[in-house]
Amino acid sequence: MPSGGIDHYSYLIDKRHRPLLIGIFLLLLAVAETLTGQSLAGYGRTVTRAENPNQFWWSVGISCAAGLLGIAIFLYQNSN
To answer: What is the pTM of this model?
Structure first.
């Protein structure tokens, strides 16, 4: 039995994996926003799909694009 408590989770702390983790988090956030119908807006506000659909979809789109960008940065950095 290995005796390292956090050794197998060291990839979460590694700097090389931060863009990947942030990208996955943002993609999951976009999915959660789409399913709930509420998204985060600036200054701690929330926007609902029913009240302001244009701003809601822009917010979801930005979260999704930022998540894909984070994953792309990770893949580009680790392609060599």
So the answer is: 0.80
Q: Residue 14's closest CA among 74, 63, 68?
A: 74
3-state secondary structure of 47: strand
19, 20, 38, 42: which is closest to 29 by C-alpha? Answer: 38
The residue with tokens 């917010």 is 59
Contact indicator for 24, 64 with CB cutoff of 8 Å: no
Q: pLDDT tens digits, residue range 25-34?
A: 999 999 999 9
Sign of CA dihedral 65, 70, 71, 76: positive
